[in-house]
């Protein structure tokens, strides 16, 4: 049977018990520290993916806008030509009508 005969035995027993609890606490603390770091890493990776997606979207939109801007000048030129042709036809039709009206009055 275990007998405590000296006060030094009691001290060693208490120190061993304290070391045991400190070890358990440190193991628990390290576990939660690792879990927290892992979650932080997952969150940072998720944020990085989202930022990359936003950057890709912005780049794509910028390229589309640049392409449309180059086509826009062509479209504007085409519309100007169509308007000019329409005005010419209207002038021709007016002059033709005026000449017909002038000839029928004669």
Task: Describe what this molecule looks like in 3D.
The protein is built from one helix and no strands. The chain has 106 residues and is mainly α. The termini are far apart.
Question: What does this entry show, briefly?
Answer:
The chain has 106 residues and is an all-alpha fold. The chain is 93% helix and 0% strand.
Keywords for this entry:
106 residues; mainly alpha; rod-shaped
Secondary-structure blueprint:
Elements: H1 7-105
**Structure class:** mainly alpha
Please tell me the overall pLDDT. 87
Order of helices and strands: H
Helix content: over 70%
- In the predicted model, the low-confidence regions spanning at least 5 consecutive residues are none
Number of helices: 1
Major beta-sheet overview: none
How many angstroms does the end-to-end distance come to?
146 Å
Bulk shape: rod-shaped
| Integer-rounded radius of gyration | 45 Å
**Could you give the count of β-strands?**
0
> What percentage of amino acids are in beta strands?
under 5%
């Amino acid at each position: 049977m275990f007998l405590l005969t000296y006060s030094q035995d009691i001290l060693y027993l208490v120190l061993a018990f304290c070391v045991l609890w400190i070890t358990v606490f440190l193991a628990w603390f390290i576990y939660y520290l690792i879990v927290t770091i892992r979650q932080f890493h997952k969150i940072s990776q998720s944020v990085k993916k989202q930022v990359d997606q936003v950057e890709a979207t912005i780049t794509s939109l910028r390229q589309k806008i640049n392409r449309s801007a180059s086509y826009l000048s062509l479209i504007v030129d085409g519309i100007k030509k169509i308007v000019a042709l329409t005005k010419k036809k209207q002038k021709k039709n007016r002059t033709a009508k005026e000449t017909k009206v002038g000839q029928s009055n004669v």
